[in-house]
UniProtKB/TrEMBL annotation:
Keywords: Repeat, Signal. Gene3D superfamilies: 2.60.120.200, Immunoglobulins (2.60.40.10). Residues 1-19 form the signal peptide. It comes from Sedimentisphaera cyanobacteriorum. The keyword Cell cycle does not apply. Transmembrane segments: none annotated. Residues 355-452 form the Ig-like domain. This is Immunoglobulin I-set domain protein. Coiled coil: none annotated. It comes from the Bacteria.
Amino acid sequence: MKKVLLTFLCCFFAASAMAGDIVSWFDDGDALVDYTAAKDGSGGDISALNPGSTITHAAKITPSQLDVTEESGPVVIIEAGGTLHGSGIYICNGEFVFALRTGADDGARELTDLDGTDGAMSVEMGEAIAGQENTVYASLNLTTGMILTSVNGNTEIRYLVNAVSSDNLTGNQTVAFLGDQALSIHMGGLSGGNDQENPFLNQSNTWIFDGVAGEPVRGQIFGIAVNPNLMANNPAPATSSVNIDPDVVSEAAFETAEDPANPGSQHPDVTGHFVTFYQGLNGDPNLGLPPLYETFVPAGSDPITVPINTPETFELDLGQEVFWRVEEQINGAPEGDSANILSPVWSFETLPPVPAAVSQPEDQAVFAGEQAVFEFSFTSKTAASAAWYKEGDPDTELLESDPDVTIELAQDGDSYTSTLYIDNAEVADQGYYYCLASNTDGDTQSSSAALAVKRMVGYWPLDGDYQDYSGEGHDVTPYGEPDPAQWVDGVAPAQTGQALSTIGRRESTGETEPFNAAEYTDEITASLWLKWPGTDDYGVIWRGIFSSRDDSVINWFLEIDNRNGIVRVNAPGYDAYQFAQISPDEWVHIAFTSSKDEVGAFYINGSQVAITNPGRYSINDTSRPVILGSTQENIDNMIEAVMDDVRLYNYAMSPEEIAGIYYDVTGEQICVEPNAENLVYDINGDCEVGLDDLAAVSVDWLNSKIFTGAAE
């Protein structure tokens, strides 16, 4: 998870002529809502920001001791939206927290979770102080990923990763401020009742704000975000940078605060810059101690540069934390004047004495017999070595005495790259691997990377039995006593043999013992043949076809609408994805893949019919039963149909591989990329450019519609 942190240490009342009551950069008249009394949410409280990229929540409150010591759940301050989309500010165990959901319901989160992959994010803002007025706001800009939060003048900027660039920021358009009578109809940025891993972000645990009687309150929501360029900005080294080499850094740089009336231009009243550097320790800038260095730089063209790392300024060492900030001088005012504009406090860290990681090993997924390669790059100011290990109990060092193991260490000055080669990969090699880099000052361990062997992990031909013929041992146990009549002709008896009919005998469905089909890969391919007879008399609409789940966790499932043959898949945190509608009493090949980069691809009869954007579909990779013919271990959910040749792979197959499974049974060729660039002249749609297409074009050869002027 990437985390970029900027800390402001005072308010900026002089920076904007707007001077709002809570958010000094805004005009209070621009607030979408502005409350001075507690209220519950109701529909239509706020105009829709859908789609929207910016929103700011703000509040001025006086918490009670009860508010800051509540240990069972969040205390609501101000929130907007609900169901799957919303955001808000809460007190969680004495800390203000901003929480956001962009399509997630039950994604488990820490109080600070900046990864938007699952659509559930949150940020710790700062301490809530009982018995005194607290001024807080959180400003979100999804276009840049920025979350700017401020608690009593102490402001931070963090940046989201893997988040959407816009969303329905107001959800169901309810707004709750502190809560009055009931909070049951809204969720804001909290998760649903399934998020048991963090009770402070669970909607079912919410508390109405207690407060101090008689103290004024105010809550606002704006449809805009604070612009960080209104302060000194764009520091170099970039804030939160690590592994800065003291031997090459000679200056720090930044850009002047922007003119609010002329974006992109310097603030015309800035006449200079007070720049101060501090010695940090464990993330604490130690602003109360004497600074490392302070100077004044006159106004000039951007970037503004400040010489450092000299005997006249201060010198950088290995393993040093440096914090620094800029106070923009306004019209010649002295340092500390209220008219000046304070920047964030920026930070960077120099190279540590021990090896410093530069690039980490990446996961490898190879077929049996292929070579897997892991690389770890690091910097060391002194001579270094490296060794590789496989995680286990205990971890095992890999040695080149193993004929399938080769380890190389390349050096270029202070830069090192250690490479691990594993030849002839086999299932026994699966696991997690890491590198340990060492020098005379100590060791640095890389992150662990997975090695997976791509293969079929479940194969149920259903030729008169439930046995798994993949060799992995995942036999299906039927829910009821098998009936010989359930074994019928398959889709192509000469190729596929028999099939399983659950028509009139739902208990002939069944499940495996728990296993993780996506272990080490985070990918799967599911493939099967289905002949659906059409609707029946049971009332349950959605019937399970193939799934991996139990009562507590869903990995993935494939199901059909028994009324009309619509087929869909689902996975936690994502809306069900409908991708096809099949006809009754016809054999249909159905397949879907889920890849590591969170792309879902869906196939009917060997052809890809739908695909998601990256980051928009993923599965859980936990050990759960694989269920054939159901998704809920419930007889009402079990499908009545005929199934054949059910397969499960631990990697996402290509369109060509899916087409190959279909071709092996039918002999029918499939156009795997009908929209490919090199098929733009495929006039007759036969998936190749040939003489027939040339003939189609030549029919109109030399036809012309060029306008010519009248003859002179």
